[in-house]
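Hi team,

As requested, here is the filled-out complex form for the FE2/S2 (inorganic) cluster run. I kept the field names the same as last time so the parser does not choke. Let me know if anything looks off before we queue the next batch.

— J.
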Amino acid sequence: MSEYTVEFVGTGETIEVSEKETILSKCIEEGIAQEYSCRVGMCLACSAEIVAGDVTQPAARGLTDEEAEEYALTCMARPASDLKLDRGKYPPSIEDETGAMENEAAAADD
Ligand code: FES
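And here is what came back:
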């Protein structure tokens, strides 16, 4: 079983994560303040930008294939190499959803 170093840019936090565990589960175990909500790869709350390295995250259903190249859903992602992650960075689709909700709310006010 391989272990990889996961470094969170801008915070100086570093954890060792095996290829068999999710980055989020290790963050919780180590007391790292990684946000999360659904824990099933749907809500994007646990998203982080992949600055360097690779992850495996076949169950990250909330991401498009293109987004999965640049972002990790830490509740689903397992390291496939040493990593540098920028926590709290979200893929463009989450912005679209927020914008769509705002537009729906504005339409409801009319
Ligand atoms: S916690 Fe919802 S996608 Fe990870």
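Two things worth flagging: The domain at 3-109 is CATH 3.10.20.30 (Ubiquitin-like (UB roll)). The helical segments are 23-30, 67-70, 92-109.

Thanks,
J.
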